[in-house]
């Protein structure tokens, strides 16, 4: 299989993503957004960075790139699609998932390790974990606050589409453990299909024992 890691102008985590996937034995290559998805694409990753300088809103301009039509069609066919950080913002802006990511409650860029509680282990992206398991991965964002209306948030919960919530080391979901003010401490969600997911933390930065630990590897295994 070949995972296409889409590179937009301003992406800066595409090489990290390819390296992390390759380390896990998953074939991956960078694809420039103007070139469209290759025919042999069997997975798509929208990486982090600052596509188009985050002008207008983070991810808003990249969401209008023609390649996103290819990504949307691939998702409809069941091809696994994962958006990380800026890629999560692109995913929401393009309609792959519900909700939006807005300016952190602190109004500051935040780069730190956080704890996540696995809310639904019955998905490709969380199959390596148990329900309620706590993992540690880094964040690096200024617009990572997940926001959604009350009714739509309830629909996410009812449909078991919340993948991860920010928590403390013991798995307690608290305001203090919420780094950006996200609704319901939500850190990652599913799209209409379980094969489509977006999350704000960076699993590709947590796949090596000597560099950030390996807690994020299970998420990338969703491409296996």
UniProtKB/TrEMBL annotation:
Keyword check for Metal-binding: no
Keywords linked to the UniProt accession: ATP-binding, Cytoplasm, Glutamine amidotransferase, Hydrolase, Ligase, Nucleotide-binding, Purine biosynthesis
Biological process, per Gene Ontology: 'de novo' IMP biosynthetic process
Gene Ontology MF term list: ATP binding; glutaminase activity; phosphoribosylformylglycinamidine synthase activity
Localisation: Cytoplasm
Domain of life: Archaea
CDD domains per the UniProt record, alphabetical: GATase1_FGAR_AT
Pathway noted in the entry: Purine metabolism; IMP biosynthesis via de novo pathway; 5-amino-1-(5-phospho-D-ribosyl)imidazole from N(2)-formyl-N(1)-(5-phospho-D-ribosyl)glycinamide: step 1/2
Active site: 85, 202, 204
Catalysed reaction equations from the record: N(2)-formyl-N(1)-(5-phospho-beta-D-ribosyl)glycinamide + L-glutamine + ATP + H2O = 2-formamido-N(1)-(5-O-phospho-beta-D-ribosyl)acetamidine + L-glutamate + ADP + phosphate + H(+); L-glutamine + H2O = L-glutamate + NH4(+)
Function field: Part of the phosphoribosylformylglycinamidine synthase complex involved in the purines biosynthetic pathway. Catalyzes the ATP-dependent conversion of formylglycinamide ribonucleotide (FGAR) and glutamine to yield formylglycinamidine ribonucleotide (FGAM) and glutamate. The FGAM synthase complex is composed of three subunits. PurQ produces an ammonia molecule by converting glutamine to glutamate. PurL transfers the ammonia molecule to FGAR to form FGAM in an ATP-dependent manner.
NCBIfam families: FGAM_synth_I (TIGR01737), PRK03619.1 (NF002957)
Assembly and binders: Part of the FGAM synthase complex composed of 1 PurL, 1 PurQ and 2 PurS subunits.
HAMAP family: PurQ
Entry protein name: Phosphoribosylformylglycinamidine synthase subunit PurQ
Gene this protein is translated from: purQ
